[in-house]
């Protein structure tokens, strides 16, 4: 089905291009008719053709939609959808370009009030879900990092992307992105089968290409600089770390950390001590990381400064079972194993984690346990589980030290986006820092039961040797002690056979005749209670901004207008879970009357006092418009104060997605909203407890709700 | 009293120096006696003198302690206290030097698990206390900032400290710190009155000195480089911002933000729009700021990367009253006005905020309201209100644009530390960014009632003028329109008197005779509904690390040993408020038995599930030692599972500071601890509700608790 889908998508894009061109023709003709240069007949003919082309386009688009079902869509729809979400995010100041009054800086974004609140809620939940519930050790270190730390970790040498320069204006571009864009455009046009296969093959291997091979491909496909069409340089590596200088002398090189992980690794000895010198344990850090991207793009998905949450789980490499694995073993999710990716099907399968471990698809319980915890985290904050998959890295994608790696990928209008990486980094980082600092970066593992190990002990009898060899005794003792096990056994045999043996036959110790009473060579059984190891590390690493953006796309929908409303009065809604909603409740007066406003302020204050983020909207616009405004911010609940409130101290409580309402006493409001917001109580339970109230005329009805996955029906 | 205190402190320091020197003598004599170079009698004599000197020193120290009471102490005691607190913070990994396995980097620190949790709790409370409760607009922007933004704000030019270089090894030092150290050492020795006054005068003015004057003073007092005693360079300005380069071309200069405030200012137009174009409103940002300090010192008080919380309250400069001021008007605190600082008394006075505003000591309600909110914040997180004062900046301390500025200073072993600055920055920043970008950075203020303004209107009658002057009409119209009000009135009088007037008599319009019907000059009343202004800004700015450190000092104490314990078994306690405590509860089994452990794990899990940070300690050490361990982490409550628990499902609940215990059913534990932790319930209320339980033998008794403010009685 995948291949057919690709064909149809291509057809849609081609038909779109043809229709667009004809649209331009029609516009040009219209102008020409006005000037008298063309006849009306010519124009009408062109319009008729345009209509025909549009019909064809619609037919192809429909066929494409049928093929993809609800989960995907044409790139045309995707772009329109993405623009609509972006507009909503910018209009309500969820996210804005940083320093926009100065023209903005590529790859830097600000979170405005609602975006900041949503991000903060997700981070708080991350801390609760992982740090608190898994009893992790949280640390917070600086972003400014001295160079030796990042030399040891390999970042100074290898944290690079390949870059090309525009030979004309010096503009820089990512070499792989440039090649990718050109090849994808080629694929959109008719090509013979061999050529298409060839290009698809290059695209599939894009991540693997080194500077030389990438350079050769750029030449082969005659890639030029975008916009200018100038020649480009050969690809060369550009280090993505922001460099700076620490201290006033200017001689201490520093970088802004490209990941939060290293701040944990360098603290390993202290953290181990803090944990009572016991393995396994996990440490975590949530904070800013910095990557000086060559050409940032895709909104907040590839930025120069971002919030990262990283967990380093330190474990005895020989014991990667997990005591709490049974709690996640029955969780089912989309698993896209390495094997499936290289097979003909190329599709993930729904699988239980327990089965994934049993069948060996996932290497061990610990990595699978974290995959399970990531899954429950993502679902809790509003990611659609049907549009999330765990994809195993192919061999070439993994760092050379990594043992296994799974990405939690979420489908967005940009395609499948890596939001969380769960990697088995082995003991690489700790060993690197140990080598760079000469510090002990290991842990003592006590065996469950002591082990008994047989070993050969060579014990020179110093007293006898001293008498026999005087000043040479030291040399002899040292020679005996450093004999290989094999030679020691040979000497033992010789001594037992003939009573003496010449040292020079067994090692470079010189010409000394050793007697039987001069050395004891025996096999002994030793009790070993444990061993010293460098722990393995399993690292779940979260890009908070990416998760946030995908969540925005998954929670965005457009509510159709209710009867009697204007057609273009489409209403944008973010169906945030109460957990992440920036504001839990909006309080309105039904009409702009001071006696209503007084009650609204009291209600709002009591909700805020109990820790619930609440806003008040006393502007004079219609209640329907105010509901729409609060829906666009994703506020899950709204309270309306009306005439009845003044009589009986009850208010209307409305739920965002169903638009259903109940009548509830003010005295119950705080507790009810707290439970709804912490997701202890479901809306249905509240509905069962309190009398329902008819929605106001302008409020949309439940059946009008549209879950517009890439729907073009948006403003 | 202040002056006497200074004298006595000087005496203590002098006596200490003399005693130290005699101590050295005694050690030298001991060695000499061994070698037979001196007699035993000489040694005994020296020892007797040392004993006498030490007695004198103790007497002076005692007198000093009497004078200062509990609130302050000698610098000797301060240092020992600081070391003890520092040891405790490092021992339990609250705070550690960053990159310590690489030798550490000056001015960079890590927060370990308990430090991170305390910091996180303080930040959460900051968000709740300010952003949620004051309905502020929170934003989050990047640290990486393009140069033009910081040029406009003045940081590129003026964010500097004066630096000197060691002529020998190139080491850099802060010029003012060097002078200060030398002068303070001079003051510690006997000096004639004139000299002492002179030096005290220089110290008082240290902040005001420019490069030239500071250079002159360094020369005058013959200041050399510390450690090496080399010559030093003249002072020169060093910019404290970390510089970096944005993007791959290397031609976009950037800096790490030195404050979070500018990220708010550049978003002002969008934030104003978000707020419905209404003033006043406040925006806030909590995040990392970076300052490349010349010589970081004083632990985490002066660092190169730190968390800052900044609030910008935008307000009509003519209306700085605050609707919620009455809520803080009766709050009493130590207020150290500019006037008191320059008076003879030099002491803050306890004052109500209402009175401070009424008497004009504080400029307006808004700045006083924020001072009140800062006060309640600081007290809630554990700062001792008797060791906190609000000090007004002296004229020379303020930035040239600032209208008023108050520091919340907290007393620590380092002296009075600025933890929060509350500044009226006027419209400076917004005007700077407006000028740099040509963007509108103002707001429209609608008057409560429209104002009626009388103004003189000069209305040339174009038709008549056109006929009379033809091609010159334009010149005449323009001349009439730009007349001063005074001349227009004179012309009006002339026209009314003689029916005509020559233009040249009233302006540079040329020789034209104007008739009465050619121009209408009338006073008219106009209705004005509002005006366009650049808002003033009141900025409370918080250094989270400084607040944290002062809180550590204010909550540290040493519990004396109970009877039967070893003398040196002193126990360190941090009496964190439940709000900021890193862990709310520790769960212990009384003995290391599996049936106890099972219950402990269940209790711990249920507490964690309800969001309470809980740890479990099942190590085999004595219960007393385990209590001591949890006290040192500042855990306010501990649960012990014992034999009775298995019978009746009750446990012992212990409060940290009183060491008192109650017996409570496990089923009540969650709710009780939640209420205790959120400070809704007091421990006394829990004591009243449940039967008390005798403390274990090794638990210290309440009367043994020592609130050691700078006590030397610490490990």
UniProtKB/TrEMBL annotation, chains A, B:
Cellular location(s): Cytoplasm
Main localization category: cytoplasm
Residue ranges of the region described as Disordered: 692-715
Presence of the UniProt keyword Nucleotide-binding in the record: yes
Coiled coil region boundaries: 26-63
Known catalytic reactions: tRNA(Gly) + glycine + ATP = glycyl-tRNA(Gly) + AMP + diphosphate
Example GO molecular function: glycine-tRNA ligase activity
Domain Aminoacyl-transfer RNA synthetases class-II family profile per the UniProt entry, residue ranges: 200-578
rRNA-binding found in the keyword field: no
GO CC annotations, alphabetized: mitochondrion
EC id: 6.1.1.14
CDD domains associated with the record: GlyRS-like_core, GlyRS_anticodon
Record keywords, A-Z: Aminoacyl-tRNA synthetase, ATP-binding, Coiled coil, Cytoplasm, Ligase, Nucleotide-binding, Protein biosynthesis, Transferase
Broadest EC class assigned to this enzyme: ligase
GO biological process: mitochondrial glycyl-tRNA aminoacylation
Family statement: Belongs to the class-II aminoacyl-tRNA synthetase family.
Subunit description: Homodimer.
Protein name: glycine--tRNA ligase
Species assigned in the record: Chloropicon primus
